[in-house]
Amino acid sequence: MTTRRARRAQAMGAAMTLACGLGVASPVLAHPHVFIDTGVEAIFDDEGQLAALQVVWVYDEFYSMMAIDDYGLDPEFTGELTEDERVELAEIYSNWVEGYDGDLYALHAGERVDLSGPLEVEADLNDGRITISLVRALEERLDPGVEPVTLRVYDPSYFTLYTIAREPTIRGRDDCSAEARGPDLEAAEARLQEELDQMTEQGLDSWEIEQDFPAVGAEFAEEIRLTCAASS
């Protein structure tokens, strides 16, 4: 079964090949390599507790093209998947490597909220882009009316760039709001440049830097602040 790590390596190679073909001098300039439009829905249970998060990933066209070819799907190049192919694709994206956090981080009262692995995974190919929908259940349910919940969407390695491309939604309560916020890009770029300068000063070339790229994904993270009315 193809793992996420293998998919990243394949996408990385493809991105570097493209960069060389375009005459880009350094593969570092191609970072990040994969671009995902993201949507998040907060799901509440009958008791008004936050129970789960539904996440949608829409991959960029280049990655999607390479991945569909690598998986051997849509051999007729119709741009559509059969039901069996959708099931196979969903299974592939259900197979997370050990230690992978799903690039979604929830914080409540300053503490990390534990989330389940991928549940109810669905997959399709729409307009040339792989679309993955999945659910992450909270290991312990909580009430954002006591303290807001912050959801951060990012890849720590900055290999993948996530953009919250649709308004966050809420299911199960009508007294909550979800606000998406972007990062301080100027500060994030400055931090990245500082890290790259230090690696260059150590004598590392661009390929070595690419292999051990600074873990600055959090600096570029977009986040959602989920607040609810206090319980009576």
Provide an overview of this structure.
This protein has a single domain, classed as Acetylcholine Binding Protein, Chain: A (Distorted Sandwich), CATH 2.70.170. It starts with a helix and ends with a strand. It has five helices and eleven strands. The protein has 232 residues and is α+β, with helices and mostly antiparallel strands. The N terminus is likely disordered. Strands 1, 2, 5, 6, 8 and 9 form a six-stranded mixed sheet that branches. A hairpin with a 5-residue loop joins β1 and β2. The longest helix has 18 residues.
Question: What is CATH's topology name?
Answer: Acetylcholine Binding Protein, Chain: A
Radius of gyration: 19 Å
Low-confidence stretches: 1-29
| Number of strand segments | 11
Quote the distance from N terminus to C terminus: 50 Å
CATH architecture: Distorted Sandwich
For the record, the CATH class is Mainly Beta
Task: Please give the domain count.
Answer: 1
| Average pLDDT rating | 87
Tell me the series of helices and strands, N- to C-terminal. Answer: HEEHHEEEEEEEEHHE
Helix share bin: 25-40%
Instruction: Note the main sheet.
Output: 6 strands, mixed
Please state roughly what percent of the residues sit in beta strands, choosing from under 5%, 5-15%, 15-25%, 25-35%, 35-45% or over 45%.
Answer: 25-35%
Overall structural class, as computed from helix and strand content, comes to: alpha+beta
Count the helices. How many? Answer: 5
